[in-house]
């Protein structure tokens, strides 16, 4: 039976990540907590809006209501990457070689490790940013689609159009697909190696009863898990046309209890599934076998992250009840 080491914080947890084997918990109030030979806290922002792990540098990137973009080290050190007074930094992404992307309003910024900055202005508000897995390229989600920009080239963007509000964006690990979360309770995808304007380019993933706030690619990119239903909806991406014409897996169904977070295991085809009542299950894709990782808690699961070995899962909730689950115990 997995064991849970609890950590009770005061408020909503916006992000969870492992730096090395140290779990970090980012509170919406702006505090960054870590469990490193005791509970340690750093005051980072006056209101935190975004938090992601930078794999290239094994640091945490955060954006806040104070207009700051920060890099948090494993020792809790804080380095300011950018400061845009009177702007909210709600979108942030980590790229290759220490590159960082962030956005406010209609503008996406990319800051390279050498200090070089590039700006990309959209016609509508930027709702999401992601770096491509290869090459210095970003995808910017906006109303009616996605813009693809080469950071180091003065080329015109490639526009991936689909009507509606796109609220987040992600590349598949192999770079063959771009997928967005939509306001209309759906995912939408584009196949990058098909001709622009062709019907096979589009992938419609619909039927969700609620807005999708969490997606996670499996270790080899063959599956995409998503929240927004009373089960984790897991789409197959093994075939050349992705999930088109194929039914998704529905894992961890619990009546009408909504899935709020998903996190795929770093090596195996398993997903951690967090629910609105604070419960967490681990479910295997091959046979839908379930393991209870955590019983219901005080609030909906709002963030989860596996450590590198996949033997520990850190989690946080909207009510601040957090913890680390050791699945080898």
Automatic annotation (TrEMBL):
Keywords noted in UniProt:
Cell projection, Cilium, Repeat, WD repeat
What sequence ranges are listed for the domain Anaphase-promoting complex subunit 4-like WD40?
A: 266-327
Pfam families linked to this entry = ANAPC4_WD40 (PF12894)
Keyword Repeat applies: yes
InterPro entries, per database record: Apc4-like_WD40_dom (IPR024977), Quinoprotein_ADH-like_sf (IPR011047), WD40/YVTN_repeat-like_dom_sf (IPR015943)
Keyword Aminoacyl-tRNA synthetase in annotation: no
Tell where it localizes: Cell projection, Cilium
Classify the main location: other
Full protein name: Anaphase-promoting complex subunit 4-like WD40 domain-containing protein
- Print the organism lineage: Bacteria, Pseudomonadati, Pseudomonadota, Alphaproteobacteria, Hyphomicrobiales
């Amino acid at each position: 039976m997995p064991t849970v080491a609890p950590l009770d914080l005061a408020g909503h947890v916006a992000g969870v990540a492992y730096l090395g084997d140290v779990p970090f918990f980012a509170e919406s109030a702006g505090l960054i907590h870590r469990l490193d030979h005791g509970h340690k806290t750093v005051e980072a922002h006056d209101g935190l809006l975004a938090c992601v792990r930078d794999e290239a540098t094994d640091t945490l990137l955060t954006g806040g209501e104070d207009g700051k973009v920060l890099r948090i080290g494993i020792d809790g050190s804080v380095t300011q990457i950018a400061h845009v007074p009177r702007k909210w930094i709600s979108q942030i992404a980590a790229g290759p070689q220490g590159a960082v992307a962030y956005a406010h309003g209609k503008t996406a910024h990319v800051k390279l490790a050498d200090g070089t900055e590039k700006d990309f202005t959209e016609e509508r508000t930027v709702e999401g940013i992601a770096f491509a897995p290869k090459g210095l390229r970003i995808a910017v989600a906006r109303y009616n689609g996605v813009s693809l920009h080469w950071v180091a080239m003065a080329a015109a963007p490639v526009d991936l159009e689909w009507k509606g509000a796109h609220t987040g964006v992600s590349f598949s690990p192999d770079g063959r697909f771009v997928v967005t979360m939509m306001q209309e309770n759906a995912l939408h995808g584009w196949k990058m190696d098909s001709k622009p304007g062709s019907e096979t380019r589009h992938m419609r993933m619909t039927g969700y009863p609620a807005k999708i706030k969490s997606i996670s690619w499996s270790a080899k990119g063959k599956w995409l898990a998503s929240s927004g239903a009373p089960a984790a909806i897991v789409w197959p991406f093994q075939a050349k046309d992705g999930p088109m014409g194929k039914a998704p897996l529905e894992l961890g169904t619990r009546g009408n209890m909504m899935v709020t977070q998903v996190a795929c295991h770093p090596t195996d085809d398993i997903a951690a599934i967090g629910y609105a009542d604070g419960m967490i299950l681990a479910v295997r894709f091959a046979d839908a076998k379930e393991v209870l990782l955590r019983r219901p808690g005080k609030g909906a699961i709002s963030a989860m992250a596996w450590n590198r070995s996949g033997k520990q899962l850190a989690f946080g909730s909207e009510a601040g009840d957090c913890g680390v689950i050791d699945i080898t115990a």
